[in-house]
Amino acid sequence: MSLRGVWQLKKLVVSFCDWGGSSRGIRAFMESELPAFIEKNPQLEVVTELNRGYHPLLKGFYKNKNERVVCVKNMTQEDVLQCASRLRNSQGRKVLKLKTRHVTKHPSVQGTWSTDLKIAN
């Protein structure tokens, strides 16, 4: 995803094993889908690295110095493409857990409305 017109993902590392069965989907992805993915995303540096005996990974390095690692073991090539697209489309920020279900600048003094309210007549 771009922030003010600048793509946030700098580098995508595709780590795979040339022998293992869990890397079958990522090897098929590298043969068929990866060249088109690189062509569609010229702003992105894509590096492939061979790690024998390890499960396949996609590593995304972002401009804000964050890193995301996604394990893609036993996934099909379509699923690997979807994971790579999600890494490209994300901003690399850490996921924050919200304390409430709603976010507002001016919280209600009386409390949040719900369907369980009992109104006294």
From TrEMBL:
This is Ribosomal protein/NADH dehydrogenase domain-containing protein. InterPro entries: Ribosomal_mL43 (IPR039927), Ribosomal_mL43/mS25/NADH_DH (IPR007741). The keyword Transcription does not apply. It comes from Salvia splendens. It comes from the Eukaryota. The keyword NADP does not apply. Signal peptide: none annotated. Keywords: Mitochondrion. It is found in: Mitochondrion. One of its GO terms (cellular component) is mitochondrial large ribosomal subunit. GO terms for biological process: mitochondrial translation. The lineage of its organism: Eukaryota, Viridiplantae, Streptophyta, Embryophyta, Tracheophyta. One of its GO terms (molecular function) is structural constituent of ribosome. Residues 18-91 form the Ribosomal protein/NADH dehydrogenase domain. It holds the Pfam family L51_S25_CI-B8.
